[in-house]
Design brief:
With 427 residues, the protein is mainly α. It is built from 19 helices and two strands.
Length: 427
């Protein structure tokens, strides 16, 4: 369970040329992560800088101690709904404690070598809950994308939709136009330049246009007046046993999602660079990363599949790229964070609408319709339960159905064999 970076250093598996490539890749990934980290923090119900703090501290630790050469850690869309619900119910202090508890659970999972269990989670379930999370993330963006004026948005997806409909009279046409323009720009930007992320271009152009033409729509500064560019001192909120008990279930939810998403990201990146990750070392790193992130006031983190893939495509082949990504974000936060107040809220929603579409495994869901009926039932049950209820229930019910269907299937096969043997005896 030795971290990949330590292994590569001990085996002298790094040369100057590759280190240069890793540094460049780390800077590119940081540029990609910048708008995403801010947008994900706001959608999670916390202040913008907490997204950057998460990407900086969790990203650094995950790369330093992780079991993958190219994993990029940080806040992801999968956590938005979960974090938002925890903040609404337990406040920021509750989120910090739940994240620390989740980190401890992840470390225990790694020490007990439970990382290999990921291979027993069927693809129907991973595709189902990933696409379900994508839908819930999409629903979360409607408020700012349409410029709706709502003080307290419910945590549950269906309640959110009901709340949006009730407040449709506050629709802001200018916020919608700016957001829609950003989506169109991000869709077509790769045809112009594939190296510079469209999300960053959309953010810069939209922010400049809104400022120059004095367009009256919500910005980060108008919604969050106290944005800090300084790194907070590490601290643990004061809690007692009574307040910890209700946080056990949210902590387990964070740990399960972090474990599954990070290890799936490792599998994807392994195929891209022809390598094999250490799943248990990765779980320990994810646990440590979440604990450190929470101590500095950050939110839950995991391996980010899109940013990890971007790292590979940019030439990253060692954890150095992930470390550089974290350091670059730190410099950006300290120097440029005051400018973040000018960013329109609808731009961040537009970015996450694109993220939600990309993270949904729609092609796989369509292809899986040709699987046996029992697998299709598991797929769509997991998908629907993720949207309507929560991830833990969806995975729990999905796994239970998968096991029951397999037992019934094997039982039927045994019965068929017994009947054939009886026929042979009669003949």
């Amino acid at each position: 369970m030795s971290p990949k970076l330590f292994k590569m250093l001990s085996q002298k598996d790094l040369d100057r040329q590759q280190i240069k490539k890793d540094i460049v890749s780390g800077i590119i990934v940081a540029i990609i992560a910048l708008p995403l980290s801010i947008a994900l923090a706001i959608s999670s119900g916390v202040s913008p800088e907490k997204g950057l703090i998460t990407a900086i501290f969790a990203g650094f630790v995950i790369s330093l101690l992780g079991g993958s050469k190219v994993q990029i850690g940080g806040p992801t869309g999968a956590f938005v709904v979960i974090v938002y619900g925890i903040v609404q119910q337990h406040g920021i202090d509750g989120l910090i404690m739940a994240t620390i508890m989740a980190g401890i659970i992840l470390i225990i999972m790694g020490v007990l070598k439970l990382g290999d269990l990921i291979k027993y989670v069927p693809k129907t379930i991973t595709v189902g809950f990933t696409s379900g999370i994508a839908v819930t993330l999409l629903i979360t963006q409607f408020k700012d994308f349409f410029g709706l004026q709502i003080q307290n948005v419910p945590a549950e997806a269906l309640e959110k939709l009901e709340c949006y409909i009730e407040n449709i009279n506050t629709f802001d046409i200018m916020a919608f136009i700016v957001g829609l323009a950003c989506i169109i720009l991000m869709i077509y930007w790769p045809k112009v330049n594939k190296n510079i992320p469209g999300s960053l271009i959309a953010l810069i152009i939209a922010t400049a246009v809104v400022k120059i033409f004095d367009i009256n729509i919500d910005t980060i500064g108008s919604v969050y007046s106290n944005i800090s560019s300084s790194i907070p001192a590490p601290s643990i909120p004061k809690v007692d046993i009574k307040s910890i008990i209700p946080l056990i279930q949210p902590a387990i939810t964070i740990a399960i999602l972090a474990a599954i998403e990070s290890l799936l990201s490792c599998v994807v990146s392994d195929n891209m660079i022809d390598d094999t990750h250490d799943s248990n070392a990765e779980l320990i790193a994810q646990g440590a990363g979440n604990i450190v992130s929470a101590l500095f006031g950050g939110i839950p983190a995991t391996g980010a599949i899109a940013r990890t893939a971007a790292n590979v495509r940019s030439g990253g082949r060692s954890p150095i790229s992930g470390i550089v990504h974290a350091v670059t974000l730190l410099l950006i936060m300290v120097i440029l964070m005051p400018l973040a107040k000018l960013i329109p809220m609808t731009v961040l929603s537009a970015i996450l609408i694109i993220v939600s579409y990309n993270m949904g495994e729609w092609k796989e869901m369509k292809e899986m319709l040709h699987l046996p009926k029992k697998d299709v039932i598991v797929l769509y049950t997991t998908f629907i339960l993720t949207i309507v209820f929560d991830l833990v229930l969806a995975i729990g019910v999905g796994m239970a159905m998968h096991i029951v269907f397999n037992i019934i299937s094997k039982s039927n096969k045994v019965d068929d064999i017994d009947q054939n043997e009886s026929l042979e005896e009669i003949i």
